[in-house]
C-alpha cells in the first residue's frame, strides 16, 4: 500500500506529465490512474471480491489515507476561489460522492450551483428521475428471495425529519436503520438558512421578546389560508419550545432570534450571529444519530414499502447503488424523504404556472417518499399547493435566506424602486417579483445588515454579491438609476426613523440602510416547498386512503406530509416541523415496534 506522500507524488507526476505531453496517458477515470499504482486492493477489500458496502466505507477510507480529508483539502484551497471541499454539507462526506472510480467523476456541488469546477477526469453531474417501480420484475424477484436482515425501525431519508426520527427512536430503545438514496446526507435541511420558529422559548425570554404559542398557531393558520389541519398546527406550536430545548440539549446553538415572513413576533431561532440554521441543526442531529449507533446507509433507495395481507407494514425493499436489491424486515417504517420540488414534471402537473421553474431544493427531492407511500395505500392532501421562494439567486443557484430581509434589507426593481412589503408571505412576495421587468429584482442592504447575519458571508464567498462604496456606485454595479435608488433608500430610512412604513406597511423596520459599503443580490422566485403530501395524525401515523384509519406501522414526518402548512408555509416553520414531527414519528415508531 502506498503511503499518502507517495500517492500525492505519483498523482502530481501523472498530472504534470500529462500536461507536458510525456508518455503518461491521461486516464478516463480514476481507476485507470490507480491501476498504474497497484492492484484493485489498493482501493477495495480484496477478500470481499468487490465494494465494501453502499457507503463505500473502505474505499473512502483509502481515499482519505492518501489525499487527506475534506478539512485538509479545504485548508489548502486558494482563498480567492470557491472551494468545493468547503461547504454546508453535513456528516462525513464521502470522496466518492464526486470522485468516481470506474466512471467519470462528477462535481456534486453543480447539482445546485453552476461554478464550473474543473474536475479531473470528470463528466457532467445530473440526476435522472427514475420511477420507484421502473424495474418491477427485478424487484419482485428480490422479494421472492426473502428477507436479508431485520430491524425494529427503518427511517427513509436523512434530512432533519429523518435524523430527528432516528435519534428519537434510538432514545426509545429501538434498533434503527436509516436509508438515504443520495451519496450525501442532510436533504433540504442542510440548505435551510433562515431559522426555526418556536414560541415561548428561553431564548425569547432572555431577549425580552413576548410571544405566545397561540400567536404562532394563528400566524401559521393565517399564512396557510386556514386550510391547514388545526390539530397538526397546535402540535407544531405547542411543542416548538420543547423542540428547541431538545436540540440545545444535544449541542445546538439556537440563541439568535429574528423574524421571517408572516410572523407577528420575532420567533425564528438560529445560531449566534444569525448563522444558517439548517446545516447546523442537521449536523447536530447527524452527530447524535451516529453517537447512538444508528445504522446509516447512503446510496440506498427505498423502492417499496412491504405489507402483509392485512395491510400492516412489514419492512422495505431497498435498491443499494452497489449491492442491488434486498429486503429489510421492520416492525415500523418512518417516511421522511422530503417533497418533490426538484421534479418539475410533477410540480407542473399540480401547478402548471411553475413549469420550467428552477428549484432551491437538493437534487434528491423528486418525490420518492410520496411514491412509496402511495403504493402502500396512503391518503394525500394539498398536493396542488406548491410554494415558490421569492429570493433565489440565479447567479449562484442558491436560496437567499429570508433572514436578510428580516434583518432590514429592501427589495427594489430595475427602476430602483421598492414595490412590496419585504416580509410579506412568500407567495405574495414571489407574485410581486414576477410582475417586475425581467421577472427578477434586487435585494439591497448595507454593511450593518451584513454584520448582523453570518449567513451573508456565504453569499459573498460565492461571488454573487455586488458591492459599492456609495449607493450611487452600487446602482452602477446593478444597472439601475442611481438617483432613484438613492431616493428609495432615503425614503425607507425616513420610515425607519418614524417607525412606520407609509408606503407598504412593512411591520418590522429594524435599521436604516446607512452604513457603507452597500450591497445587492439579484433574486427571482424558484420552486421551494411542496406543502402537500401524505395525511398524518398528531402521532405522525400515516392514514389509509381506503379506510381513513392509520396504516399499522407506517409513520411520516416533514415535507413528505400534508396538512401542517396549508396552502402556504411560513418561513421558519419547516425546521420546526421536521424537528417536532420527526421526534414524534421516531418515538411512536419505536413504541409500535416494542409493542409488536
Automatic annotation (TrEMBL):
<feature type="domain" description="FAD-dependent oxidoreductase 2 FAD-binding">
    <location>
        <begin position="152"/>
        <end position="575"/>
    </location>
</feature>
<dbReference type="InterPro" id="IPR036280">
    <property type="entry name" value="Multihaem_cyt_sf"/>
</dbReference>
<dbReference type="InterPro" id="IPR003953">
    <property type="entry name" value="FAD-dep_OxRdtase_2_FAD-bd"/>
</dbReference>
<keyword id="KW-0285">Flavoprotein</keyword>
<comment type="subunit">
    <text>Monomer.</text>
</comment>
<dbReference type="InterPro" id="IPR012286">
    <property type="entry name" value="Tetrahaem_cytochrome"/>
</dbReference>
<comment type="similarity">
    <text>In the C-terminal section; belongs to the FAD-dependent oxidoreductase 2 family. FRD/SDH subfamily.</text>
</comment>
<dbReference type="InterPro" id="IPR050315">
    <property type="entry name" value="FAD-oxidoreductase_2"/>
</dbReference>
<keyword id="KW-0560">Oxidoreductase</keyword>
<dbReference type="GO" id="GO:0046872">
    <property type="term" value="F:metal ion binding"/>
</dbReference>
<feature type="signal peptide">
    <location>
        <begin position="1"/>
        <end position="25"/>
    </location>
</feature>
<keyword id="KW-0249">Electron transport</keyword>
<keyword id="KW-0813">Transport</keyword>
<comment type="similarity">
    <text>Belongs to the FAD-dependent oxidoreductase 2 family. FRD/SDH subfamily.</text>
</comment>
<feature type="domain" description="Tetrahaem cytochrome">
    <location>
        <begin position="33"/>
        <end position="114"/>
    </location>
</feature>
<dbReference type="InterPro" id="IPR027477">
    <property type="entry name" value="Succ_DH/fumarate_Rdtase_cat_sf"/>
</dbReference>
<dbReference type="InterPro" id="IPR036188">
    <property type="entry name" value="FAD/NAD-bd_sf"/>
</dbReference>
<dbReference type="GO" id="GO:0010181">
    <property type="term" value="F:FMN binding"/>
</dbReference>
<keyword id="KW-0408">Iron</keyword>
<keyword id="KW-0479">Metal-binding</keyword>
<keyword id="KW-0274">FAD</keyword>
<keyword id="KW-0349">Heme</keyword>
<dbReference type="GO" id="GO:0016627">
    <property type="term" value="F:oxidoreductase activity, acting on the CH-CH group of donors"/>
</dbReference>
<keyword id="KW-0732">Signal</keyword>
<dbReference type="Pfam" id="PF00890">
    <property type="entry name" value="FAD_binding_2"/>
</dbReference>
<dbReference type="Pfam" id="PF14537">
    <property type="entry name" value="Cytochrom_c3_2"/>
</dbReference>
<dbReference type="GO" id="GO:0042597">
    <property type="term" value="C:periplasmic space"/>
</dbReference>
<dbReference type="InterPro" id="IPR010960">
    <property type="entry name" value="Flavocytochrome_c"/>
</dbReference>
<protein>
    <recommendedName>
        <fullName>Fumarate reductase</fullName>
        <ecNumber>1.3.2.4</ecNumber>
    </recommendedName>
</protein>
<keyword id="KW-0574">Periplasm</keyword>
Amino acid at each position: 500500500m502506498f503511503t499518502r506522500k507517495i500517492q500525492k507524488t505519483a498523482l502530481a507526476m501523472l498530472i504534470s506529465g500529462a500536461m507536458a505531453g510525456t508518455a503518461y496517458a491521461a486516464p478516463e477515470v480514476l481507476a485507470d490512474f490507480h491501476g498504474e499504482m497497484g492492484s484493485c486492493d489498493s482501493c477495495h477489500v480484496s477478500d470481499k471480491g468487490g465494494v465494501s458496502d453502499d457507503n463505500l466505507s473502505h474505499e473512502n477510507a483509502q481515499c482519505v489515507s492518501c489525499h487527506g480529508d475534506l478539512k485538509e483539502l479545504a485548508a489548502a484551497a486558494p482563498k480567492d476561489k470557491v472551494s468545493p471541499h468547503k461547504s454546508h454539507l453535513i456528516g462525513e462526506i464521502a470522496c466518492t460522492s464526486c470522485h468516481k472510480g470506474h466512471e467519470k467523476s462528477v462535481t456534486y456541488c453543480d447539482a445546485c450551483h453552476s461554478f464550473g469546477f474543473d474536475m479531473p477526469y470528470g463528466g457532467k453531474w445530473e440526476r435522472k428521475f427514475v420511477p420507484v417501480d421502473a424495474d418491477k420484475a427485478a424487484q419482485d424477484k428480490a422479494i421472492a428471495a426473502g428477507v436479508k436482515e431485520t430491524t425494529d425501525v427503518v427511517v427513509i431519508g436523512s434530512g432533519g425529519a429523518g435524523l430527528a426520527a432516528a435519534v428519537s427512536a434510538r432514545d426509545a430503545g429501538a434498533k434503527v436503520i436509516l436509508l438515504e438514496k443520495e451519496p450525501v446526507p442532510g436533504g433540504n435541511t442542510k440548505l435551510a438558512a433562515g431559522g426555526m420558529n418556536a414560541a415561548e422559548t428561553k431564548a425569547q425570554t432572555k431577549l425580552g421578546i413576548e410571544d405566545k404559542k397561540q400567536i404562532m398557531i394563528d400566524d401559521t393558520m393565517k399564512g396557510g389560508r386556514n386550510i391547514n389541519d388545526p390539530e397538526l398546527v397546535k402540535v407544531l406550536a405547542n411543542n416548538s419550545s420543547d423542540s428547541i430545548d431538545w436540540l440545545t440539549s444535544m449541542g445546538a446553538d439556537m440563541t439568535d432570534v429574528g423574524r421571517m415572513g408572516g410572523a407577528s413576533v420575532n420567533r425564528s431561532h438560529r445560531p449566534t450571529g444569525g448563522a444558517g440554521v439548517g446545516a447546523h441543526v442537521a449536523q447536530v442531529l447527524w452527530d447524535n444519530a451516529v453517537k447512538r449507533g444508528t445504522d446509516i446507509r447512503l446510496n440506498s433507495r427505498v423502492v417499496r414499502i412491504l405489507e402483509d395481507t392485512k395491510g400492516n407494514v412489514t419492512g422495505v425493499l431497498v435498491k443499494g447503488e452497489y449491492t442491488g436489491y434486498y429486503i429489510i424486515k421492520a416492525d415500523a417504517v418512518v417516511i421522511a424523504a422530503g417533497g418533490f420540488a426538484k421534479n418539475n414534471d410533477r410540480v407542473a402537473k399540480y401547478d402548471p404556472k411553475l413549469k420550467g421553474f428552477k428549484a432551491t431544493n437538493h437534487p434528491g427531492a423528486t418525490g420518492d417518499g410520496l411514491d412509496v407511500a402511495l403504493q402502500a395505500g396512503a391518503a394525500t392532501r394539498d398536493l396542488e399547493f406548491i410554494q415558490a421562494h421569492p429570493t433565489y439567486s440565479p447567479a449562484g443557484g442558491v436560496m437567499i435566506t429570508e433572514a436578510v430581509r428580516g434583518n432590514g434589507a429592501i427589495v427594489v426593481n430595475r427602476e430602483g424602486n421598492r414595490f412590496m412589503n419585504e416580509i410579506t408571505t412568500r407567495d405574495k412576495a414571489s407574485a410581486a417579483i414576477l410582475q417586475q421587468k425581467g421577472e427578477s429584482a434586487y435585494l439591497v442592504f448595507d454593511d450593518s445588515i451584513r454584520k448582523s447575519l453570518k449567513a451573508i458571508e456565504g453569499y459573498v464567498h460565492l461571488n454573487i454579491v455586488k458591492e459599492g462604496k456609495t449607493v450611487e456606485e452600487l446602482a452602477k454595479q446593478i444597472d439601475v438609476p442611481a438617483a432613484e435608488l438613492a431616493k428609495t433608500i432615503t425614503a425607507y430610512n425616513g420610515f425607519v426613523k418614524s417607525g412606520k412604513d407609509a408606503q407598504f406597511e412593512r411591520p418590522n423596520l429594524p435599521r436604516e440602510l446607512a452604513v457603507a459599503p452597500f450591497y445587492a443580490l439579484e433574486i427571482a422566485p424558484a420552486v421551494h416547498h411542496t406543502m402537500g403530501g401524505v395525511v398524518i395524525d398528531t402521532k405522525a401515523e400515516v392514514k389509509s386512503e381506503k379506510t381513513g384509519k392509520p396504516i399499522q406501522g407506517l409513520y411520516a414526518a416533514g415535507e413528505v406530509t400534508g396538512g401542517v402548512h396549508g396552502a402556504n408555509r411560513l418561513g421558519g416553520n419547516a425546521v420546526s416541523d421536521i424537528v417536532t414531527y420527526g421526534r414524534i414519528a421516531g418515538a411512536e415508531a419505536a413504541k409500535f415496534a416494542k409493542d409488536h
